[in-house]
Amino acid sequence: MERTVWPTLVLYGVAALAEIGGCFAFWAWVRLGRSALWLVPAVASLCLFAWLLTRAQADFAGRAYAAYGGVYVGASLVWLWLVEGTRPDRWDAAGGLLCLAGAVLILAGPRTG
């Protein structure tokens, strides 16, 4: 795997945590009845997520977003386990690994032209 893939995957991992955290804060406000003050970290976290995606080493936004999607799926399953206390089952794990493999393929695949 090319050296530039690892820093991008790490960046996507941090972006995924920012996105999931921001969305969860919004979820907590709407679905769990938390205070509207939860919207402050939600918006800040989602802005951080969007800014981080602009830092990705990609020539095209669509390709960056597509590769990020695979990392997001994996990070969401880690969130499910560590934050929500529900261990992903074998189907979750298989799907997450498939998505991560797709992200690596998108990032490291040879490009023509």
UniProtKB/TrEMBL annotation:
It is a multi-pass membrane protein. SUPFAM superfamilies: Multidrug resistance efflux transporter EmrE. Its main location: membrane. Signal peptide: none annotated. The keyword Transmembrane applies. It is found in: Cell membrane. InterPro entries: EmrE-like, UPF0060. Keywords: Cell membrane, Membrane, Transmembrane, Transmembrane helix. The keyword Nucleotide-binding does not apply. Belongs to the UPF0060 family. It comes from Azospirillum picis. Pfam families: UPF0060. The chain crosses the membrane at residues 9-30, 36-53, 65-82, 94-110. PANTHER family: UPF0060 MEMBRANE PROTEIN YNFA. This is Small multidrug resistance family-3 protein.
